[in-house]
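Usage example:
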Amino acid sequence: MNVLHLTAVIAAGSLIAGLVGALTGLGGGVVIVPLLTVGLGVDIRYAVGASLVSVIATSSGAAAAYVREGFTNIRVAMLLEIATTLGALLGAALATHLPTAIIAVIFGAVLLHSAYVSLERLDPAKAPGKPDPLAQRLRLDGVYPSPSGPQPYHVRRLPLGAALMALAGTLSGLLGIGSGAIKVLAMDRAMELPFKVSTTTSNFMIGVTAAAGAGVYLRRGYIDPGLAMPVMLGVLAGSLLGARALAATPSRRLRVLFAVVIAILGMEMLFNGLTGKL
Amino acid sequence: MTSHTRPWTDERISRIIATLLRSGVTSAAALVLLGGSLYLARHGLEPASYRVFRGEPSAYRSVAGILGAARHLSGRALIQLGLLLLIATPIARVVFATAAFALERDRTYVLVCLIVLATLCYGLGAGGP
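Running the assembly step on the lines above writes:
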């Protein structure tokens, strides 16, 4: 395969990765890593470097639209980024001391279970609960655009959400992937944010988590320009398409897509953990 | 109303953050596209091999190396330069948010942003080779 051919194949796959990543708040890594490693026989380290680039491109590309349209909750994102970035540092420091294969298997099982729960309850009853005093003091409550006009919402259980975010950060530092899934689950399930606010706020946050790791990967020589170029341009185009589609897509359909993608991610994690590929 | 009297609200911060992200990503994409075209024009028909990890040459691994090679219009260095800009974009939005919350006189969130920024800088600096 020559360079032109490879570039075209990667760009096409990246377009899909960006579209899915922007709609689910997961970034494009779920698609990019298996496409490069299993599909094209690329070494895992180059694939992880390209995946990191795809996460930053999806995040910043789609976030520009989501922030302006009022989906993203910037205060929630900034506050929880403390937990994710500190967690990521902790995870990177622990990576050499912990059995990452076993952690990947446990994480994979948790994701498969979450996918199952998400599919079982596609329309969780989210009665606008009582406002939470801590969230109110931190001015976290917000309003988001819905088909029936602006919809106010409350943020609940902040400490639990922050703890899950720290876990998400630690896992991303340990395993190099997968922080978006727990971010969305923490905001959707624990903090009871509307689903579209959860996915777009996760999308906003993953760029910062990935940027923290990108410097290290660049210095280690994991980021190859020949691979990163079609990944970045393809993912960016896909994420812009995804950002356009989000407002018009019913939350229910997004939940199905999210569940399917985290199920695939869970299987990837189980596979990588069991075959010792981490 | 001039910008001096316009109040700093969350809506205004959001609009500026959206513009910041868009400009960062657009200029990064333009550089990657330019570098990519040069790279493909020069090396497009060569065989591609990424099966074995060799690590990037030092010219594509450090800011100084990338800047040096980009000056000679190396396609791959221009791509890396675009990627550096892409990596800098989310960090720039944390820096901007810090300043914006300061103008909004929201001390809690200035502190929040500073903690995130400090952690990011530590992570970027402490990674080692």
